[in-house]
Amino acid sequence: MNITITKFVTGPLETNSYVVSMGKLPVLVIDPSSNCGELLHSLKSERKGVEAIVLTHGHFDHMLGIPEILAYAPAAPVWVNPNEKPMVVNAEFNGSFMLGKAFSHTSPTRDLPEGPLSIGPYSFDVAYMPGHTPGGAAFIFRDSNETACISGDSLFAGSIGRSDFPGSDGKALLRCIRDNLLTLPDNAVVYPGHGGRTTIGRERRLNPFLQFDS
């Protein structure tokens, strides 16, 4: 694959923050949580800029690091599904109040459209994944031989995202996983919001939440 996806474990809930890179070009930073020192050190040491910050959803642990990234790259836009904006701007909705320190991002954001999207040199598909949150998304990168999916908190190795939060919908989440992710090739690599990576084929066979009746 022409792109490289690098994981950095960040923040109070050990969130997987990802850097999507292509050579020496500016990168995409996906779901930056707090304490991004290692991530930023990597960018600085390779003298790479930031094309954009892209959020799979608006829970606090997936965006606490936005100020750190913007301190390094002030012009980087933040992209998020419009249905997530109430969470992004409101600490009561995004859960950060649980830390005892409210966090919100109230600067303008750009709307993630469903379907094919190009941000700078990066082309990928945005799959809307409501269920864990009202406007979650997964990002699917393809070339002729490989497929990679950054799934946020929709699909994990051996599990799926929680659906017991306000605004969650468990049936919708399962439907989106079935229709948008399990249609990917078996060898598609899944990069989830927490924990280790997996493949679509493994989750299709072994994930106990995904044993749908045919």
Q: Supply Rg.
A: 16 Å
Q: What general outline do the C-alpha atoms trace?
A: globular
CATH architecture: 4-Layer Sandwich
Mean pLDDT: 94
The order of strands across the largest sheet is: 1-2-3-4-5-6
* Helix-strand sequence: EEEHEHEHHEEEEEEEHEEH
Structural notes for this entry:
This protein has 214 residues and is α/β, with parallel strands linked by helices. The chain has one domain: Metallo-beta-lactamase, Chain A (4-Layer Sandwich), CATH 3.60.15. Helices cover 20% and strands 29% of the residues. It contains 6 helices and 14 strands. It has helices at residues 37-45, 66-72, 85-88, 91-94, 170-181, 200-206; strands at 4-10, 15-21, 27-30, 50-54, 78-80, 110-111, 115-119, 122-128, 137-142, 147-152, 155-156, 159-160, 189-192, 198-199. A 6-stranded mixed β-sheet has the order 1-2-3-4-5-6, covered by helices on one side. Strand 2 (15-21) and strand 3 form a beta hairpin. The N and C termini lie far apart (33 Å).
